[in-house]
Amino acid sequence: MKRNLAPMYLLVSLAFGAILPVFYKQPYFYFASYIVLQYVALSVAWNLLGGYGGYLNFGTSAFFGVGAYVSAYLFNSLGIPEVIAILAAGAVSALFGVLIGYSSLRLRGVYFAIATLAATTLVQSIVLNTPALGSAVGLYIRFPAAPAIYGNLIELLFVAMFGISVVSIGLSYWIENSWIGRGLMALRDDEQAAETLGVPTFRLKLYANVLSGFLMGVVGSLYPLYIGYIEPYSIFDLGISFNVFVMTFIGGIGTWQGPIIGALVLGSIQQAASVTVTSQYNLAVVAAAMLVFGIFSPGGLKGIFSRLFGKRSTGTVN
Length: 318
Fold this sequence. Notes:
This protein is mostly helical. It has helices at 6-23, 27-50, 60-77, 82-104, 110-128, 153-176, 179-189, 191-196, 201-227, 232-235, 238-251, 258-276, 282-296, 300-308, and strands at residues 139-140, 229-230. The protein has 14 helices and two strands.
């Protein structure tokens, strides 16, 4: 989309998501669409550092889990309003991004990936040993009342996640076309050369990690309201991180469209498989998609579209 039309597209998309549940009443559609949109937002957020910057990040479940636990504790235990709890969850996740960034963004390649895995395990261990967060038992969530305009809570959660996804996409599009995006892509291609040319590589990586962490935390903050119960083993499941990486990979790493395409396609297939077969096959679907696209189309679906229409796309990860 053209840059001058981007705000209009965002406003129209937000309006569409807000009014859809008023006219279309199908609970399972919103129940399944919420998860698909959740992965759209997470994949777009992952792409900020993993796609544009080329840093392979397996810490998605850590940011997601931090956001979930912060919002659950504030809303459930302290009675903080939902909107404030969601913003606070994003802020804490962003702060976590600062801490992780300063300690690990000087690493590269597989060493950075291992550091993000370790960060996830560390946060999970902290939650497991914190009674106020339910330890291994977890937390049950009290459900808030949905506004009268929507029939139930799942419709409200769908609207909220739709809005988060649209805003995340808008930010990703803006970053890709800004000096931040150009700087991140330069360090992805050759970090030492970018530094030589005066690109503030570490600062850009930290920006991307913090913004990515904020968005992932906001996404995670809604999950307790969706599921009704959270515990550290499922919330910090590394399968979430792997899922997000594969969705971005098959869509097209390093483009603003790629994570959207990959999450919509793979997320929809997973939701369909959960209904028609079993949810246990979800990771099998992910692994099969990774294998097929890794062999036949490393540029993902966006790369296929680009070749068909004569445009070059996507980057790589270190």
